[in-house]
Structure formats: structure tokens, C-alpha cells
Design a protein that fits this description.
Radius of gyration: 18 Å
Number of strands: 5
Structural class: alpha+beta
Strand order of the largest sheet: 3-4-5
Strand content: 15-25%
Distance between the termini: 60 Å
Largest sheet: 3 strands, antiparallel
Shape: elongated
Number of helices: 7
Helix content: 40-55%
Order of helices and strands: HHHHHEEHEEEH
């Protein structure tokens, strides 16, 4: 069985969906899902796009097993993605480049076109927490009035 089929099943089981529920969301029958999970059917690019879009799955990870967006695992069933924060920074005009440092370590480079800062995952996570705290502080001040 191909690794993509295993990751396909992992997405479904991590979401806690039955084969039928998962299939209904991406337009496949229960038997279609079963065939993919058992390796007797290939995952199409259409279904890859749907899974990534509907369930916010990292397409590079689903297709290759390599994370383009690093993850912090709180427990075996809960994964927190940087993806939303990265998209937010990109919407502000920053370019984020993610590079593997080792098999389970990543660095992120944030650039505004003039300046560039390379950070390890922990540093990036701390920056994200600080920004979220600052935003909460600002909103709390706004709501006090």
C-alpha cells in the first residue's frame, strides 16, 4: 500500500469520521474510501484538493509525508497548525518560507522584502503567542469603553 493511502486514512481517523461520513464530505462512497485505505484504489488529485480544502490538511504532507507547515502535537489526536497564522502574516504582506532542518525539526523565515528573520519552530510559536496576547489586550481595552 502506498504511504498516501495511509495518510488518507489517518486524516479520516484523526477527524473521528466513519468511512461513510468522510466519503460524503468528499464525494466518495464508503466502499471507495475503503478501497483507498486498503490500497486497491489510488487517491485522485481531485480528492486530495477536496480533503485539503475541507479539512485544512497540508497538501504537501498528504501527498509526500513532508510537512510544509510545522505542527505542534499536544496529544496523539490533536494537532495545532501554524497554517492560519502563516496565512494571516502573508495577508499582511510577509513572505513565510518553511524549511526542514532535520527529520522532525523545521525553521521558518519571515521576510518583508527588505528584512529577513529565520526562526526555529519554538521561536515562531512564541511570536504567535505574543501576537495573540497583544491582540487580546487591544480588544479587552476596546471592550472596556
Amino acid at each position: 500500500m502506498e504511504e498516501i493511502n495511509k495518510r488518507f486514512k489517518q486524516v479520516r481517523t484523526d477527524l473521528g469520521l466513519t468511512q461513510e461520513e468522510f466519503g460524503n464530505r468528499i464525494g466518495l462512497s464508503k466502499s471507495g474510501i475503503s478501497n483507498i485505505e486498503h490500497g486497491t484504489r489510488k487517491v485522485t488529485s481531485k480528492h486530495i484538493k477536496l480533503i485539503c480544502s475541507i479539512f485544512s490538511v497540508d497538501e504537501l504532507w498528504l501527498t509526500t509525508g513532508i510537512h510544509s507547515t510545522p505542527n505542534l502535537v499536544k496529544n496523539e489526536h490533536e494537532i495545532i497548525h501554524f497554517e492560519g497564522f502563516v496565512k494571516y502574516l502573508e495577508s499582511l504582506g510577509y513572505k513565510i518560507t518553511i524549511q526542514p532542518e532535520s527529520e522532525d525539526s523545521y525553521s521558518l523565515t519571515v521576510s518583508d522584502g527588505k528584512h529577513e528573520k529565520k526562526m526555529l519552530v519554538d521561536e515562531f510559536s512564541n511570536m504567535q503567542s505574543e501576537i495573540e496576547s497583544f491582540i487580546s489586550f487591544i480588544f479587552n481595552k476596546l471592550f472596556e469603553k
